[in-house]
Amino acid sequence: MEREKDSDKPPLDLILLDLNLPQHDGSDLLRYVRQDPHLASVPTVLFTSSDSPKDRLNAIREGADRFIRKPSQLRDYMAIGATLKLMLDNGAGSGAA
């Protein structure tokens, strides 16, 4: 990822992260993102099939701006798209969805 030199602007507008990654734990990656000075302020959404309250609480505690469970219906995916667009339009997001 290339960054503009001497730029204080985050390199990304939004990070969409799955909790269950094939080779890594999404929570580990979230902690890495929150510790990296260039990524720490980027809104981060955990998008996962998990419906565990423990996973949701841990994600918010570790700095996720939103925790969104993957839906099973297309119309629900469309609603998530609208939520993500609002986050981008507003520059951030907070809380769990």
Describe, in plain words, how this protein is organized in 3D.
By secondary structure, this protein is of the alpha/beta class. The protein has 3 helices and 3 strands. The chain has a 3-stranded parallel beta sheet, covered by helices on one side. Helix 1 (26-35) links the parallel strand 1 and strand 2. The longest helix is centred in the C-terminal third of the chain and has 17 residues, at 74-90.
Summarize the entry for a quick read.
The chain is an alpha/beta fold and 97 residues long. Helices cover 37% and strands 12% of the residues.
What's the helix and strand layout?
Blueprint lengths: L14 E3 L8 H10 L8 E5 L4 H9 L4 E4 L4 H17 L7
Parallel strand pairs: 1-2, 2-3
Strand order within the widest beta sheet: 1-2-3
Shape: globular
Which regions have little confidence, pLDDT < 50, spanning 5+ residues?
A: 93-97
Strand content: 5-15%
Radius of gyration: 14 Å
E-strand count = 3
State the share of residues found in helices, binned by percent: 25-40%
User: How many H/I helices?
Assistant: 3
Largest β-sheet summary: 3 strands, parallel
What's the pLDDT, averaged over the residues? 82
Structural class: alpha/beta
H/E series: EHEHEH
Q: Terminal Cα separation, in Å?
A: 29 Å
